[in-house]
Amino acid sequence: MSERLRVHPEHPAPRPLRLAAERLAAGALAVLPSDAGYLLAWTLDAKEAEERAQRLRRLDSRHPFTLLCRGLSEVGSLSKLDDRAFRLMKSLVPGPYTFVLPAGPGLPKRLKQAKRRAIGCRIPSHAVTRALLDALGAPLVSTSLVLPDEELINHDAEAVAERMLRQVDLLLDAGDCLPGPTSVIDLTGEAPQVVRQGFQPLHLD
Questions:
Q1: pTM for the full predicted model
Q2: Is 104 among the domain residues?
Q3: What CATH number is attached to the domain comprising 27?
Q4: What residues does 118 pair with on adjacent strands?
């Protein structure tokens, strides 16, 4: 059964966060607020939820997802985070940025089986998402709320609820979000490269 939990965008109450964490830990597919629009999210071992997200967005099995992390130490446990990448990320996070990093030995087994050589990581600044990650004590897998063949205003809470509530198990409603998308910074090469400019332009020079 779909559930809509309303929370304050800056000071979320513990109870709805605890309920959301329990639903996610049980394998739910959720729509969550972020600092770059609402997004689809699920836990690392929720294979069925991931397949549902792929069907909703009509993605193939090779499509890369993004890991939502609590901090740089968690990013470092999942990726190969060298000093250069660490310094750059530290200067930017938390915020609406996705970092593409070489996959590390701590990557969960299911993602290793997908032969991921690189992973996308985010440390979001939205208070609700950060509090939820703390309640879970683990990263989440995510993908942006971009649906095929239609334009969904994915930062508008009412539009998201009207379109998505019947398609997912949970909506954590924190009101309207900043629009997104994130900037994407590739850190797998010799020098950092901005491969997508987000709604907040980023210049590394």
A1: 0.94
A2: yes
A3: 3.90.870.10
A4: 102
